[in-house]
Amino acid sequence: MEEIGVVYKVSRSNYATIRFDRKIACENCNMCLKPREENFVELKIKNTLDAKAGDRVRVHMADKAVITASFLVYIFPLIIFGVSLFSTFKLKLWVSLLISFLSLVASFIVIFIMDKIIRKKSNFVPKMVEVISEID
């Protein structure tokens, strides 16, 4: 997956904050927790091309990484919730729901930990691949 964004700022630790225009699919998602008025999404990545604020850059992330991340964030919690709900269906309804929701919370904790591990693998981290031009 490749996207083009604008470098918003560059930190002293050689990381760049890049802003991407929000897509139509973002309208009803709210996963980034940004207000609808903000028409951009920000990403902080290593500034490997020495881009400056205002530069347009092409950012690449492996398709496998995008699919894996989507599975982890959207499907994995649903599977855990469903399995726990199914395995506790003989209990009282409130106990079954409580256990299922606790397992859902636990799945997000597992995802948070897995995210820290996965980010260390280079093919799961978005990378700058090209500085396109400066914006006037």
Throw out a few tags for this protein:
alpha+beta; 38% helix; 5-stranded antiparallel beta sheet
What does this structure look like?
This protein is an alpha+beta fold and 136 residues long. Helix content is 38%, strand content 27%. It has 2 helices and 5 strands. Strands 3-2-1-4-5 form a 5-stranded antiparallel sheet, with no helix packed on it. A hairpin with a 4-residue loop joins β1 and β2. It is elongated. 8% of the residues are buried.
Straight-line distance between termini: 27 Å
Helical coverage, percent range: 25-40%
The succession of helices and strands, N to C, reads: EEEEHHE
- Provide a count of the helices: 2
* Biggest sheet record: 5 strands, antiparallel
Radius of gyration: 19 Å
Report the sheet-strand fraction: 25-35%
Poorly predicted runs are none
Any idea how many domains?
A: 1
**What's the number of extended β-strand segments?**
5
Which shape, going by the Cα principal axes? elongated
Strand arrangement in the largest pleated sheet: 3-2-1-4-5
Structural class, by secondary structure, is alpha+beta
pLDDT average, as an integer? Answer: 83
